[in-house]
Amino acid sequence: MTGTVFDIGYQRYTGIREGRGRGRIAVFKDGIRTALGFGRGAQAKVLPWFFIAVLAAIAQVMALIAGAAERIAGPGTAERMNLPSHSDYNGIASIIMFVFAALVGPELLCRDRRDGVINLYLVRPLTGSDYVMSRWAAFMAVMTAAAWLPQFVLFLGLWMSDPSPLDYLAKHWRDVPRFLAAGAAMAAYATTLALFVASFTTRRAYASVFLVGVFLITAPFTIGLAMETEGALGQWISMFNLTNIPVHVNDVIFGEESEITSEAPARLLPAWVRVGWYFAWTIVPGLVLWSRYRKLTP
Amino acid sequence: MSHNGDLVVSGAPAAAPVIRVNGVSRWFGAVVAVSEVTFDIMPGITGLLGPNGAGKTTLLRMMTGLAATSTGTVTVFGEPVRDNPPLYRRIGVMSEHETVYGFMKGREFVTMMGRLRGIPNLEAAVDHAIGLVDLADAQHRSMETYSRGMRQRMRLAGALVHDPEILILDEPLNGADPRQRVHFKHLLQQLATEGRTIVLSSHILEEVEQVADTVLLVVNGKLAAAGGFRAIRAALNQRPYHVRVICDSPRRLAAAVVALDSVDAVHVDPDGAIVVLSRNVLDLQIELPKLARSETITLRRVEPLDDSLESVFGYLVEN
Amino acid sequence: MLSIYQLTLRQLSGRARLLILVVLAVMPVVTAALLLAESGTDSVSDFDIGVLSAGLFGSILPLVVLAIAASAFANEIEDRTLANLTLSPVPRWRIALPKLLASITIAGPLIALSAFLTAHIGFLGEWKATIAVTVSAIAAVVMYASLFIWLGLKSPQAVGVGLLYIVLWEGFFAGFITGVRMLSIRYYAIALMHGLDERRFVDYDHLSMTAAVVMTALVIGGFFFLSVRRLRRMDVP
Fold it and tell me: Which pTM value belongs to this model?
């Protein structure tokens, strides 16, 4: 009589082997989890969710104020009183988003390089370029969500609190694509600069301090200097206020100045200059970031 | 050595224990890392063993005062080890992390360790410590350039420079090549004969078996066994010993052996050897040759199959 | 103690890092020079608020000290080398003190020089003002260093929390809630400055000089005490 003994020990994987695309998606998903603190305990979630809560709260408050004003003093009051609008919200939010990016963004790049984990990625069918682009996309997704969500809250709030909602929608529907574009622009700027600086150091703390430092320092200095300087020079000094660069784009999109830039001499420069400046400050760091990672090998 | 718990072990009655761990538990949130562990450690070499995640490192960290206990006390030379810096003059510790200052040269590191402990004749002590670990040639290079094994050895030199009475080593053989392991074994034995107390945590069972006088087995945060490992083995009396016998007439011997009182069972291997299961190996040792002579069977080989630390470890971990 | 002091100096002074900090420290000086060149004697109040409060004491000073002091312990904890220090018979305060002193040694002269030059240029070489600014800058460095050393021991998110403190608490809230100023290192430093030279920040509602000195001592002593306590009680990785 014959018999067979089955070896149920080690078995080779015989399923589908996914390629680069799947690898990129995996890095992307992991980037989102890292940015939002998932899977790393309560402490890691505090900072990102705190920022999102603050952003949403500001939008909520603005919506409430506008609604209250409409109710108390009649329709159209919000516009007449020039209460904070989508454009102004972006102005305020850009500062908060930049600090958010400075504190959370370096998590995505610095840790992997510090602990040597980057090599585990690079020995897969993933290039350094794939890795950094997926990380960028992940953080961009988080920042864009952080930019858009409060704007939707604000829009809904303004819409609902308007005494004639249908009229409101008819008059203001164009605000939606505008704030989507302006929000994405702010998100791209903050994401790219944060990751750009993070690519130069393995300690997250130094990247964060440097980003916030540059941000905090250029603002008062350029404002002070620009106020004292006449003409084109003053306008260009004002352009070096890094916090305002995406807000100028916001102004161009909305066709009006937000609170933050209402005093900046840079607002007087033509739209194409301000938008071009924004692209310079987003694309150049982005390219440097990409080239630094492209060269990495395991 | 004494403790309470699952297995009691015999040993010489006590001089005062050097390290006393009493009812120690440690939890992190909902995870219990160490649970109600009590034991004493005497001079000599004690091996701390257990599977990964058993709580060995947590236990060692509590014994060195690096981590607090959730309940229970740890005393060294009768004093609490926690928040008691002067005690560190008498303790040398080598943790499992490869914790070096990369920018320092090897000698600088050992010198700093010595200086922090305020030892007299610093240069001579540093020379001696570096000599013990056989790194005199590399001492003037920065530790960034060292291999893993060299870093371990230099860290060991740092733990030895102040000539401590107690040496606590967490996974000291990580990254050590076979030659280094032998050297290390001799070093430990030499240090132990000088009257030191050495606690050594390791996965490498054969090495621990060869150097350690006593063993602490930790499984799932609990102390599963303590004492000399042969004594532990004997205490595991629900597990019969397996003894393999090679002879010229296996079946006849098997038939005769199964009649002995000290034998629980016999089975015959395909290759012709027999394996005797016995709870009383001492009796078996006496009866087996007599039986073989009376049956005129030639015994070629008699070997215990599970008289090793590895098998004891295996049994306890499995349970 | 000397070993730990020297060790910390080596740990904290990377060339690239120091260069960036120097660049940051130079910015207020450059601004003062530019303002002077542009408009002669600047409006004192604007200079006080724009350059001194917002620029130097509000941004550069705390950021430079944060980068250095928070790293003193935080880097050791992250690298798991702190045990090398705590497993020695050195009393815990003699571990914390050299860390603090090393941080001050690196940040102090940098900031002091920056403050001195900024004030000297901005106040047109007037000594009383210059000394007031420099002394209060040094006091601020020591206060922030004590705070951030403790924060580096206490939290793995030390830099994040420190940045939020600087940007939100001292930068944002203190701007329009006067009560917050009573609990803010920046404003203690400003109160010291006002105490030394009453023309500085004339419009602010200040703590008296005595109160400012007391708060300075409390901040330094208090956070140092907390650091030592933390060293004694923490689980060292």
Answer: 0.82
